[in-house]
Design a protein that fits this description.
53% of the residues lie in helices and 4% in strands. A hairpin with a 6-residue loop joins strand 1 and strand 2. It has 164 residues and is mostly helical. The chain folds into 2 domains: 1-76; 99-164, no CATH class. A two-stranded antiparallel sheet has the order 1-2. The relative contact order is 0.06. The mean pLDDT is 86. The protein has helices at 3-23, 45-69, 77-96, 115-135, and strands at 152-154, 161-163.
Length: 164
């Protein structure tokens, strides 16, 4: 992936984080309030947000169409794995949206794990495996100033700590 492409991806991450931070403070009742933003097309706040979702999906489709015409459909196995990793993480994050903090420590039915333990377990093993890759065969190829998560997480079952 090119440097400018990576910068665009980072900008999308940063903007998404900011957007979710704003939306988290919106109440269900406020979704029916009229929106003055032109993208709501005379509708409600719900219309505005659904417009944004559809707008993003429409433009993602345009990019996929361009990739297809350029014969660049993520044929690289690494590119495909990066895209699938992103989808898997988005799915995990989506599963958490709408949960209260108290829900994080509830046990799953027929399981000893809590939601928090599942997320911490996922983070632990991701950091463990990717740090192993980064500090092993890729160590000499990675930039010293590469972005780091700074996450310190212990595996809830193993009790080991990973320092990001």
């Amino acid at each position: 992936m090119g440097k400018q492409t990576d910068e665009l991806v980072q900008m999308l991450f940063a903007s998404l984080t900011e957007t979710l931070g704003v939306l988290a403070h919106l109440s269900d009742a406020e979704l029916d309030d009229l929106s003055e933003h032109p993208c709501a097309m005379g509708g409600t706040e719900r219309d505005l947000i659904t417009h944004n979702i559809d707008h993003e999906q429409m433009h993602a489709g345009q990019i996929y169409s361009l990739r297809y015409s350029m014969r660049k459909m993520q044929q690289s196995q690494v590119d495909r794995l990066m895209a699938e990793t992103m989808k898997a993480r988005a799915n995990l994050i989506s599963a958490l949206i709408g949960m209260d903090d108290l829900d994080l420590d509830k046990h799953l039915p027929d399981d000893d794990w809590t939601v928090r333990q599942i997320v911490e377990h996922t983070l632990y093993w991701e950091r463990h495996s990717i740090d192993d890759l980064a500090n092993g065969k890729l160590k000499s190829r990675l930039p010293a100033d590469r972005p780091r998560s700074g996450i310190d997480v212990a595996d809830p079952l193993e009790g080991r700590l990973v320092r990001g």
